[in-house]
Amino acid sequence: MEQYLNCSEFIDWKDPIVFARAKELAEGCVSDESVAKRCYEFVRDSILHSWDYQKNPVTCKASEVLIHSTGYCYAKSHLLAALLRANSIPAALCYQRLSVETGGPPYSLHGLNAVFLKEYGWYRIDARGNKPGVAAEFNPPKESLAFPIIETGERDFPEI
Predict the structure, then answer these.
(1) Are the C-beta atoms of 115 and 125 separated by less than 8 Å?
(2) What's the pTM?
(3) Quick one: pLDDT at residue 116?
C-alpha cells in the first residue's frame, strides 16, 4: 500500500496548501470513509472542470489545481489522490477510454481515482464534476462514475 500513499511531482500532498486543506477536510470525521467522501465531494463540487467552465490556466499538479480551483479530469484526480494520501488513505489513479463524440473515434483518456476503504477494498470514484447528463456519486460499495462505457471502442480500465 505504500506506493498509494507516496508524494510525487503531481500528487504533491506534502505541499503546505494541499496538506492544510486535507487536514481541514478531515476535521470532525470519524472514519476513513467519511474523510474520503468529504475530500471527494470537495474536489467534485468546488474545483471547476476546466472544459465545462472554459477556465485557465491548464493545471496538472495537485497544488496548482487547488490554488487555481480548476482542472481537467486528470488534474482533479491528482488533487483528490493528494488529499486522500495526506490523510493516510491509499489512493490511486484509474482511466477510461471514451469516445469524444458518439460512434467511435476520436477517443480521449479520462482520469479518475480508486480509494482503498477498509470495509470494501478498492473503490473507484470520479470527481470530474457533475453537470446535466453527468452524475457521479460517492456511495460505496456501489460504483457511480461520471461516464458509463457505451460505445464499442470505449474501454473501462479497471487497473489501478
Answers:
(1) yes
(2) 0.97
(3) 98
